[in-house]
Design brief:
The complex is a heterodimer.
Chain A: H1 11-19, H2 33-55, H3 61-68, H4 71-103, H5 107-122, H6 125-133, H7 135-138, E1 141-145, E2 152-157, H8 158-161, H9 164-189, H10 193-201, H11 206-236, H12 248-259, H13 262-291, H14 303-313
Antiparallel strand pairs in A: 1-2
Chain B: H1 12-16, E1 18-29, E2 32-43, E3 47-51, H2 58-65, E4 73-78, E5 81-82, E6 85-88, E7 91-94, H3 97-104, E8 107-110, H4 122-132, H5 138-151, H6 167-179, E9 185-189, H7 197-212, E10 217-220, H8 224-230, E11 233-238, E12 241-246, H9 248-251, H10 258-267
Parallel strand pairs in B: 3-10, 3-11, 8-9, 9-10
Antiparallel strand pairs in B: 1-2, 1-4, 4-5, 6-7, 11-12
The chains are: A mainly alpha, B alpha/beta.
Chain lengths: 332, 268
């Protein structure tokens, strides 16, 4: 133990040994030389890659910077974000219903949900997008009325009702709903069956149990994969270029077909996608925090909270007045 | 289910004045018959302890009383109503979800593994059912929940999540949660079996207090001491049948059946 201390200790270690009680282990930390070797090799490779890109005469850096904030590109970015947000919101709602149907006792609902997932997960997204884009070829008119009779409420041209934007949105939403349904179903299955029993024993209806007991707990499990899906969705919006929706990738290809700067515009688009996917991890963090409440010990402060605390300590921010908490569990 | 006969009226319970009456209750899982005809009754205000080795069917029987499990034969009557079935025009119908929920709201249950809702604080756990099921106004429900927390000695943890509470505290919150629905009957499914030994006492004390206040309770337990001092009736079950039943002084101190004797010797 401490008697095994090195024969020629450094002064600090000697002090540590001197101040430590006799039975404390005072060990020399394990060295990790290979970590340094690997870090050096990888670091040098990265530097070389960046250097070769930077000095490559075939890449015009002015073009990249020129188009990065080009209004057409920015509008394309905004459209990609809009499509991502709408598609994720609607598909999540659809996914919840599909998951509920999959877990329901009703065999018809069960089968329908299974069929939906089977079709939309079993065919390529690209084909689904083209299919919705060509809907006008399949049904020239979309009519609301009583089937098999002449009675109609209204009738419109398919291409008016479903322009490329709507078709793209529809394709992404319906496809995503199939994946989300499976993620949500998995989340619901992960909740302890004892929770359903406890809710039942309190007289809660199945629907109330689902929305107040099961789904809030399932959400904690659902959020990380759904964050993944959101990032995928953002990138998948680029597939809508096949039906000429003016999202950022479509715009970039249009520009590069005129100025023949394909690589530069791909870099522009990649920068935007990287930026947006980085930003997307922020709401995920806060959602995970919110739905993780009650799980384990008190939660660590958020990065913003830590920053605020740091600034307060440095005297930049005013100190927060002491919070007077009502004694927990006290009478109201 | 189809073993229920239509002709017999459900009046025996009224005549005997029992709150719970089980008659010839049978239940199978596949080919294994876990309840082979249980007949017993519990009067208003009575505390009944169900004892027996694991696998004897005690917990299954308890879960049949609030229809968490459906029975395959016989009948259970709580407060003059068939459990899980409705009688209309001399016929017996299987209840729909809403009717089952209404029936269950009058029967509280406390589980071995507490089953508190982990995403709600202790206070919210207790308020959830009164607000969501009985549509009690939030502030009134909160006041009542705080009273109940005080009753189980846990006012100071109202804002804590279940994960921040000890097992004994969680179980006492679970009892308060069941009481919040003002049930006329409380079922306890091995309420102290998942607790560290030093935490068992607090939970038993709360149950003792409930019994003293006149609550009708059916308790599946291994706590012989509790059964002896609190129970009005002790029922010993083994292999899906009631082997012996009676006051604790008889069943625990002067058991007649050799299976009861063997079980009591093994746990005491």
């Amino acid at each position: 133990m401490s008697s095994a201390a090195p024969t020629a200790p450094t002064s600090r270690r000697a002090a540590a040994v001197a101040s430590a009680p006799d039975d404390d282990v005072v060990a020399i930390p394990l060295r990790h030389p290979w970590r340094w070797v690997v870090a050096t090799v990888l670091g040098l490779s990265l530097v070389w890659l960046i250097y070769s890109m930077w000095t490559n005469p075939n890449i015009s850096h002015q073009t990249v910077t020129k188009y990065l904030f080009n209004p057409r590109i920015v509008n394309g970015v905004l459209l990609s974000i809009l499509i991502t947000v709408i598609a994720m919101l609607v598909s999540t709602v659809l996914g919840v219903f599909l998951a509920i149907m999959r877990l329901a006792h009703n065999p018809v609902m069960n089968f329908f949900a299974w069929l939906y997932v089977w079709v939309f997960r079993g065919t390529p997204l690209l084909i689904q997008i083209v299919f919705w884009g060509y809907l006008g070829l399949l049904y020239q008119q979309i009519t609301l009325g009583v089937p098999f009779t002449d009675f109609t409420v209204f009738s419109v041209d398919t291409n008016t009702l479903v322009p490329a934007f709507t078709a793209g949105l529809l394709a992404l939403t319906l496809n995503q709903a199939a994946y989300s349904a499976e993620i949500i179903r998995g989340g619901m299955l992960s909740v302890d069956p004892g929770q359903t029993e406890a809710a039942a024993s309190l007289g809660m209806s199945p629907a109330y149990t689902l929305f107040k007991v099961i789904l809030p707990q399932a959400t904690r499990v659902i959020i990380p994969p759904m964050g993944n899906e959101t990032i995928s969705m953002l990138k998948q919006t680029s597939l809508l270029s096949v039906i000429a929706v003016l999202e950022v990738y479509t715009v970039a290809t249009q520009i590069s077909s005129q100025n023949l700067r394909q690589v530069e515009l791909l870099l522009v688009v990649s920068c935007w996608y990287l930026f947006l996917t980085s930003v997307l991890s922020v709401p995920q963090y806060y959602l995970e925090r919110h739905f993780g409440r009650g799980n384990g010990a008190a939660q660590a402060p958020t990065p913003l909270g830590r920053l605020a605390a740091l600034l307060r300590r440095a005297g930049v921010l005013k100190a927060r007045p002491a919070v007077v908490r009502p004694t927990e569990g006290g009478q109201p | 289910m189809n073993a229920l006969t239509v002709t017999e009226p459900v009046l025996d319970a009224v005549q005997t004045g029992a709150l719970v009456q089980a008659r010839n209750v049978r239940k199978s899982y596949g080919h294994v018959e876990v309840l082979k005809g249980i007949t017993l009754s519990v009067k208003q205000g009575e505390v009944m302890c169900l004892l027996g080795p694991s696998g004897s069917g005690k917990s299954t029987f308890l879960r049949c009383i609030n229809h968490l499990e459906s029975i395959d034969g016989g009948r259970i009557i709580v407060d003059e109503e068939l459990v899980g079935y409705a009688q209309r025009h001399g016929r017996i119908y299987e209840m729909n979800a809403r009717e089952v929920s209404r029936q269950r709201s009058g029967i509280g249950m406390v589980f071995q593994r507490f089953n508190l809702f982990p995403h709600m604080t202790a206070l919210e756990n207790i308020m959830a059912a009164p607000v969501g099921v009985k549509k009690v106004e939030r502030n009134a429900a909160k006041t009542r929940a705080l009273e109940l927390l005080d009753r189980v000695g846990l006012s100071h943890v109202a804002q804590h999540y279940p994960a921040q509470l000890s097992g004994g505290q969680q179980q006492r919150v679970a009892i308060a949660r069941a009481l919040a629905m003002e049930p006329q009957l409380l079922l306890f499914d091995e309420p102290t079996s998942a607790l560290d030994p030093e935490l068992v006492g607090d939970v038993l004390e709360v149950m003792r207090q409930l019994a003293a206040d006149g609550m009708t309770m059916i308790v599946v337990t291994h706590e012989i001491g509790f059964a002896r001092s609190v129970a009005d009736t002790v029922v010993f079950m083994d292999g899906g049948v009631v082997v012996e039943a009676g006051p604790p002084a008889e069943v625990l101190d002067d058991p007649q059946n050799p299976r009861t004797v063997a079980f009591l010797n093994s746990v005491m």
